[in-house]
Structure of G domain-containing protein:
Amino acid sequence: MSRRRDAVGLSERAAALERAARSLAQIAPDPVLDRAHEVLGRLEDRRALSAEHTVVGFFGATGSGKSSLVNALVGREITRAAVRRPTTAVPVAAVLGEEGSDALLDWLGVADRHVLDGSGALTDGDPAAGGMILLDLPDLDSVERGNREIAERMTGLVDVIVWVTDPQKYADDVLHHDFVAPFAGHDAVTFAVLNQIDLVREGERDAVLASLGSLLRRDGLERAPVVGVSAQTGEGLETLRAQLVEIARGHEAITLRRRADVREAALGLREAADPAGLPSAVRPADAAALAADLAVAARIEPVARAVGASYRYRAAGHVGWPVLRWMRRFRADPLVRLRIGQGAGAGGGTSGARSGRAGGRGADASDEALARTSLPRADAAARAQASAGLRRLADASSRGGTDPWRAAVRRTARSHEEDLPDALDQVVAGADLRARSTGWWWPVLGVLQWLALATWVIGLGWLALNAGLAFLGIPPPPMPMIEDLWIPIPLPTAMIVLGVAVGILLAVAGSGIAAAVGAWHRGRARRVLRARVRATAQELVVDPVDDLLSRASATGADLDVACGTRR
């Protein structure tokens, strides 16, 4: 049952490491990612091979006596030990339990194989010892580069690592720094063997072994067993043999080794690109500040002012004094100049109506997507403000994170920077600004204006007719008089004065009403455009950054699982 729980735990950790490595692509350095993928690949390969065999690799420097130790453990000479160095040039395998071992040895790349009959010194005929493969490997410090490469490659493949050293070299800094320390955390599948213990005086052996143990703890191997042996005298061999048989009997070395590898790879990813410290999402205040900066780049204020001015302009065409309306021909509608409110999104614009008649259902949102304004491009100051807004949001949203993640947040925040000008132009071009909207009071004042004009024209015509008749010597008809005023006034004159006065008063009143309603439309346009800018900022900047921050949180959780530190 315990082995099943271990296997499930390893699978979960491996899956978490795979997710973390995938998430950290383009964030963590490639060598660290490659190491994680290598660990995962080896894990899958090893799972597909014999689980009944525990592979024990004997590693050490030149002269440590690895070959003699392996020979002593198996009770026969399977590898040659000699004074000439290096002796072992290729891996040599002592195989206990031949069935199922061939594919495993092929994967290890070991051709020199010696099958043990099970009755030798290694297990003393214990049938419960299980399958075991002992590998005598080339020296880690061999002068032959190929030998070193074989030994280094095997450190990543074997299930159990046995570091073999001797009283002269056990404290060698190169051995510990280059070969032992990288396997920190592999305590459960690591043994340290001090060979040639017979060369150390009896009273000094405990001190030497304790010194080696302290060096291993410094290397990160807190609980790795330290065994003093002598391949020549047999001292300590029984202790080492019993420990190797015990770990092989439990069939847990494969899981323990790969779990340690997964943890080491996850720690490497965390050290290179720790996602801890980042906020969980973009703060609303930072998103609002970005939207305000982008609103400047989108020229929202000029557009909002143009919406108000357009309303006043069009209102003047309906409620202004008819005598002076012709002067509007010399001025264009402010929104028409900007090519705003002329498409399908204009809320009733003439161009939109024409395109609707011409294209039927074709005049849909695609027209809005293709629309462009004639607004001048944002000046350098506006562009700089938008760029600074992106930078401020990225800095605020990555505060507390490590450098790789801060850089990733900055890249993500700026990933659509080139698209922002067009997107902001579409914010304006596609907005429903009610650019063609009218007021119920326009026709009312318009009718009154025409009545006032008619009154003025009739009065003027009446006086002109009387003047013409008098010029021709024809007696004009009696002139009606208005007697109720402080002085009598001819009715045509009163009509002229009344028509002009009412027309001007209606124009002034209409202008005031248009200014008030235009201000409301300006405010509404500002609100609509700001909302669209916020939506654009959310889509192109905030959402991608939020996704990255969520990814960072998930990556942190996956690294916790892979490291075995899930809370």
